[in-house]
Specification:
The protein has 23 helices and 25 strands. With 665 residues, it is of the alpha/beta class. The strands form seven sheets. A six-stranded parallel beta sheet has the order 3-2-1-12-13-7, sandwiched between helices. Strands 16, 17, 18, 19, 22 and 25 form a six-stranded antiparallel beta sheet that branches. It has a four-stranded antiparallel beta sheet with strand order 5-4-6-8. Helix 3 packs across helix 4, helix 15 packs parallel to helix 18 and helix 16 packs antiparallel against helix 18. It is elongated, with a radius of gyration of 31 Å. The protein binds one RNA strand of 77 nucleotides through helix 7, helix 14, helix 16, strand 18 and strand 22.
Length: 665
Amino acid sequence: MERKTAMKRESFYISTPIYYVNGEPHLGHAYTSIVADVLARYHRQSGIPTFFMTGTDEHGQKVEEAARAAGKTPKEFTDGMAELFKPLWKELNISNDHFIRTTDEDHEAVVAEVWKKMTDNGDIYLGEYEDFYCVHDETFWKEGQLLEGHLCPNPWCRRPVEKRKEKSYFFRLSKYQQPLLDYYREHPDFVLPEYRMNEVTSFVNGGLQDLSISRTSFSWGIPVPGDAEHVIYVWVDALFNYVSGIGYKSDRSRYEKFWPATVHLIGKDILRFHAIYWPAFLMSVGLPLPQHVYAHGFWNIEGQKMSKSLGNWINPREMVQTFGLDAFRYYLLREIPLGPDGDFMRSSLLNRINSDLANDLGNLLSRSVSMGFKFVSGVVPQPASEPDNQVARKALAVYAAYRESMDDLKTNKALSDIWELVSYLNRYIDEKAPWVMARDASKKRELEIVMYNLLEALRLISVMLKPFMPDSALKMLQQLGYENPDCDFDVAGRWGVLSEGMKLQKGSVLFPRIDIETVENKESAVTENKNETANIEKPAAPAPLAVSAAPAEKTLPEGLIEYDDFAKVQLKVGLVLEAEKVEGADKLLKLKVDTGEERTIVAGIALHYKPEQIVGKNIIVVANLKPRKLRGIVSNGMLLAATQKDGKLAIVTTDGPIEGGSRVG
RNA sequence: GGCGGAGUAGCUCAGUUGGUUAGAGCAUGCGGCUCAUAUCCGCAGUGUCGGGGGUUCAAGUCCCUCCUCCGCUACCA
């Protein structure tokens, strides 16, 4: 973000996405909320009116189904789920000013109202959405996806489907293609980081189609005004939380103060909704657009994607119990910049805690306070008469860098700025060797000044750390003798705030060093607790323990796979019965193939084979590949072909005739 | 296939508009201090800055090409 932008901020409104309540909160949710919290706390400390909102997204078919499965009404179900998120945010010290639920009455009223506005502006029209329903699979398919004879394209089903023409309301998204592109050009920092802006622009450049924004297949949602058959598409519903939640209808003065939002913090997976649909909706309703949409990355776990099936789920609550809240918050913000993906590694977490927090910062505080008691009677000594000294200059330079980093939302840079001062102070102590001065009465005054510099610099560090580690920062300030500290930057962002005579306090170790044994003991304690605390509400799969210390037992040389992996691929011989060019596509042939059963395959070989050249040939088909729609036609499998360096292509076939459907492998 | 990004010390990365012996943190080795959470400080390194070619007095930094990885996207499957 440009420095200029940052300087202009008169208010700061930051949002997280509202989290969909079909699952338990995990590391990803916690990360977004913690980042938003840090930024919100920072801006409050800067004296800027701040509003920080998070909440839950509670409508939609999945919730309706999950509720039914749990034997509850949707409302009962979502009430329970919302109560799962709120206490976690408390535990993580999330300082949101409001928690919105899309089932809130005034939210629903806002959505109905904006729907009407979009209708009045001619941006919503009733159209038809032709669907084919497979009763067995309970799935809707589009015409182009079906197999010949209107059969379900699921290879394990292939039953006849029913035609279901559904009426649906559409939003004229196509109309906003150019306005969006214009807006992006005028506001190149609308989407952050920059490379995400490029992605969005190129997507919109590729053309936008009108968006189906109502459903009749389920009822758990906000009804379309004037047409109770339909409920409003969840994303229309969900996105407007950002204005309803600050009082678009219920609290106009708050709304006026904070809208447009400063930044919507989101995960990269929902960028399209926030960077394309959302601004188009707002343009249609005639509301100003948010200043920034910031898409952050995902956390991998020990190099692998986080997934339930891998069992590497990270439960934030367990992290907090094992390592402490502030250490956890610190790690998430320090380890990676806000934007790219990160890797959550146990070893790097322990490393950060032991090196940065325990050895560098914790020990610095500890040795400083201890010297305070030994050498200057446990009170803040008199500062130097001339405040211009190297420590003050260094501290203020770091402070300035920190402010700039934070204003630019570079949280990890801000933390490394702070640590520059931390290690500077450790060096300062070594150079000055206060324990030597203490033996020499003539050095008394010099010793006092060194001690003052140390304590005051530590105070400034605490103030800078407060958005990241609110509890630890306060503990630090307490030990430094600063009772009832004022941390607002206009008061605290200066040199010389600690005053002579303030009484230091001995405190407990701020960040204990962690050794592996301790961690393992704690972890087993957490596991035992879990039986008591878990399953308050929902049928969640038992969450696996923290991060597994032991990676896979055996690792294969790079690039090799197990036989089992290969065996998943089902190869069959296919006899090509018919072939024709796909209309409107240069490279695609549509093949009808006998692989024991008849199936349609779309292959990108039209530049190399004419339809008649391939009919009657045996091909090798990957038979259990997930069906995929190409140019409106569902392809059930893929044929094998070899490509030469220069692009020449030849299909793989059998040596002599063999029955279609024969297994290959 | 198209567009974009990345490939720098064992690991994670920083390197602004091309300009002195290429940096930080962690890990490793040696030395020092004792106020401190066996913590801290100092020193030592190792790098053909992905490969090749080019522009320039001068390139990690610009241009071309190739390789590998990642993101988005598509008439890849």
